[in-house]
Fold:
Amino acid sequence: MPELPEVEVTRLSFAHHISGARILAVRLGKPLRWPLGEDPSILEGLRVIAVRRRGKYLLLDVSDGWLLLIHLGMSGRLVFAVDVPPPGPHDHFDLVTTLGTLRLHDPRRFGAAVLARGEESTMGVKLLGRLGMEPLGEGFGANDFQTALKRRHSPIKQVLLAGDVVVGVGNIYASEALFRAGIRPTTRASRISPARAERLRLSIREVLARAVASGGSTLRDFSSADGAAGHFQREAMVYGRTGEPCRHCGTPVRMLRQGQRSTFYCAVCQT
DNA sequence: CTATGGACCTGAATGC
DNA sequence: TGCATTCAGGTCCATA
Structure:
């Protein structure tokens, strides 16, 4: 479900509500992708200081130097409310605080909640250490992007998804950014010219920023922590539009498989 | 080092 | 209606 825009929209929807809250309890459901890593009772009495994002991870800074990393995986969703119903079969993590409860609901359980001793801890480095540039930040520069692409011989779509060059671009926005840049998803990254790489860099920024502004994409069930659905899917140029006319040239949109994932593109507009 | 395929897990949609 | 197959927003890990 969640790529960078959905994670960022989720963050914005509850960060200011939970900041300053004192943690009362942690409730755990079924195991997620990784174990919490620490005894949850150590959080009791501590405060949530801030909520940041790195790639598709949410980072909750907790007093006493603790860091709570939350990943939504494919089907995860956060809810923050003063009162939440009793946990259902897919509610696997509750952070109960004086200001409300933050709940991770995740049917497929590819998501995770991990407690670490800061970003430089073993677990922090393991999960965050290989992440690429933040596409909406200052550090996502033309030179660095081009240099990184030169070293990669895989198709550009898969390089974008890998997340070690640039983070946050998932299956929807990879197809969308490549369409806007006019680049075939199968093009080897190393063979993209500097001019086209720059166009791609700007397309990535624009697509992600616009998606955040639209509240993300709600394909089946995404909603932010206050329950709001996104509507960027209405602006999708190619994703999920197999056989439908390209919004630029009218040619039917094509779908192909790359590394077990669907890719959508226009064979006329993307070369 | 890079590239590729399998693994994890559940529910919804599709096909016979 | 019932049952099997395919697909879904991610990414880690083992293997070439």
In short: The longest strand of chain A covers residues 48-54. Chain A is about 25% helix and 20% strand. Residues 33, 73-75, 90, 106-110, 151-154, 158, 220, 259-260 of chain A lie near DNA strand B (CB under 10 Å from a C1').
